[in-house]
C-alpha cells in the first residue's frame, strides 16, 4: 500500500500516520520529521531548512524530493509506505509519480483530512503548551504567528493537490475534526473501500 495523507498544518497527518504504521505494517515517511532530524544533526540540508521551517515556509522542492527519493529506496519501503506531509507542492507530486513510475509502481490512495483550519491553531498551541509543561523542546513553528504563515503556504502551494488527486481518481476524504480514535477508524474504513 502506497498512501498519502494530505491536509493543512495540524490536521493530524503525523498523528494518524503513526497509528497506521502498526495496522498496515508499512513505515511512516514524514518529511517534517526528516527535516527536523536534519536540523538537529546540523547537516547541510538541516542548515538550509532551519530558517525556512522556523518562518513557516516550505523547504525547497529539490531538497525535499531528494530526501524522499533516497528514503523510498530503503528495504523497509518495498512493501509500501505512508507519506506524511509529502507531497506539498505540485512539483513534489510530479516528482513522487516519477520516482514510483521508475520502479513500475503507482500510488494507491490519497487521504485528505478535512478540518476547520481556523481551529487547527488551537491544536498547535496545545502541543506547544504540553511540551513546555513536560520540559520538552517546543517546535519553533508551533506558535500562532508562524501558524498563520504555514496556513498561507498551505493554501498557496498545497491545496491545489486536492484537485490534482481528485482528477486522478485517487482522492478520498475523512472528517479530521473527530476524535483521534474516530479519525483512525474512518481512515481504516475508507482504505478498506478504496483498496477493495
Ligand atoms: P509537518 O511536520 O508535516 O507538520 P504539520 O503539517 O504542521 O502537522 P500534522 O498535520 O502532521 O499535524 P499533527 O499530527 O502533528 O511540517 C512542518 C514543517 O516542515 C512545514 O511547515 C515545512 O516547513 C516543512 N516541511 C515538511 N514537509 C515538507 C515538504 N514536503 N515540502 C516542503 N517543506 C516541508 O497534529 C498536530 C497536533 O494536533 C498534535 O498535537 C496532535 O496531538 C493534535 N491532534 C491531531 N489530531 C487531532 C484530533 N483529531 N483531535 C484533537 N487533536 C488532534
UniProtKB/TrEMBL annotation:
<comment type="function">
    <text>Catalyzes the reversible transfer of the terminal phosphate group between ATP and AMP. Plays an important role in cellular energy homeostasis and in adenine nucleotide metabolism.</text>
</comment>
<dbReference type="Pfam" id="PF00406">
    <property type="entry name" value="ADK"/>
</dbReference>
<feature type="binding site">
    <location>
        <begin position="10"/>
        <end position="15"/>
    </location>
    <ligand>
        <name>ATP</name>
    </ligand>
</feature>
<comment type="subunit">
    <text>Monomer.</text>
</comment>
<keyword id="KW-0418">Kinase</keyword>
<comment type="similarity">
    <text>Belongs to the adenylate kinase family.</text>
</comment>
<feature type="binding site">
    <location>
        <position position="139"/>
    </location>
    <ligand>
        <name>AMP</name>
    </ligand>
</feature>
<dbReference type="InterPro" id="IPR000850">
    <property type="entry name" value="Adenylat/UMP-CMP_kin"/>
</dbReference>
<feature type="binding site">
    <location>
        <position position="127"/>
    </location>
    <ligand>
        <name>ATP</name>
    </ligand>
</feature>
<feature type="binding site">
    <location>
        <position position="31"/>
    </location>
    <ligand>
        <name>AMP</name>
    </ligand>
</feature>
<keyword id="KW-0547">Nucleotide-binding</keyword>
<keyword id="KW-0963">Cytoplasm</keyword>
<feature type="binding site">
    <location>
        <begin position="57"/>
        <end position="59"/>
    </location>
    <ligand>
        <name>AMP</name>
    </ligand>
</feature>
<keyword id="KW-0808">Transferase</keyword>
<keyword id="KW-0067">ATP-binding</keyword>
<feature type="binding site">
    <location>
        <begin position="85"/>
        <end position="88"/>
    </location>
    <ligand>
        <name>AMP</name>
    </ligand>
</feature>
<feature type="binding site">
    <location>
        <position position="150"/>
    </location>
    <ligand>
        <name>AMP</name>
    </ligand>
</feature>
<feature type="region of interest" description="NMP">
    <location>
        <begin position="30"/>
        <end position="59"/>
    </location>
</feature>
<feature type="binding site">
    <location>
        <position position="178"/>
    </location>
    <ligand>
        <name>ATP</name>
    </ligand>
</feature>
<feature type="binding site">
    <location>
        <position position="36"/>
    </location>
    <ligand>
        <name>AMP</name>
    </ligand>
</feature>
<protein>
    <recommendedName>
        <fullName>Adenylate kinase</fullName>
        <ecNumber>2.7.4.3</ecNumber>
    </recommendedName>
</protein>
<keyword id="KW-0545">Nucleotide biosynthesis</keyword>
<comment type="pathway">
    <text>Purine metabolism; AMP biosynthesis via salvage pathway; AMP from ADP: step 1/1.</text>
</comment>
<dbReference type="InterPro" id="IPR006259">
    <property type="entry name" value="Adenyl_kin_sub"/>
</dbReference>
<dbReference type="InterPro" id="IPR033690">
    <property type="entry name" value="Adenylat_kinase_CS"/>
</dbReference>
<dbReference type="GO" id="GO:0004017">
    <property type="term" value="F:AMP kinase activity"/>
</dbReference>
<feature type="binding site">
    <location>
        <position position="92"/>
    </location>
    <ligand>
        <name>AMP</name>
    </ligand>
</feature>
Amino acid at each position: 500500500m502506497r498512501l498519502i495523507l494530505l491536509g493543512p498544518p495540524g490536521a493530524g497527518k503525523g498523528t494518524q500516520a503513526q497509528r497506521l504504521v502498526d495496522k498496515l505494517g508499512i513505515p511512516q515517511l514524514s518529511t517534517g520529521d526528516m527535516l527536523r532530524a536534519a536540523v538537529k544533526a546540523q547537516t547541510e540540508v538541516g542548515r538550509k531548512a532551519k530558517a525556512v521551517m522556523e518562518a513557516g515556509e516550505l523547504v525547497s522542492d529539490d531538497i525535499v524530493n531528494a530526501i524522499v527519493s533516497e528514503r523510498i529506496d530503503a528495504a523497509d519501503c518495498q512493501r509500501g509506505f505512508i507519506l506524511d506531509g509529502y507531497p506539498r507542492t505540485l512539483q513534489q507530486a510530479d516528482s513522487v509519480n516519477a520516482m514510483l513510475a521508475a520502479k513500475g509502481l503507482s500510488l494507491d490512495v490519497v487521504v485528505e483530512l478535512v478540518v476547520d483550519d481556523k481551529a487547527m491553531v488551537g491544536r498547535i498551541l496545545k502541543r506547544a503548551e504540553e511540551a513546555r509543561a513536560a520540559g520538552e523542546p517546543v517546535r519553533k513553528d508551533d506558535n500562532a504567528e508562524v501558524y498563520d504563515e504555514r496556513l498561507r503556504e498551505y493554501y498557496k502551494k498545497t491545496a491545489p493537490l486536492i484537485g490534482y488527486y481528485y482528477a486522478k481518481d485517487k482522492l478520498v476524504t475523512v472528517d479530521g475534526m473527530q476524535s483521534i480514535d474516530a479519525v483512525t477508524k474512518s481512515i481504516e474504513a475508507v482504505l478498506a473501500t478504496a483498496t477493495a
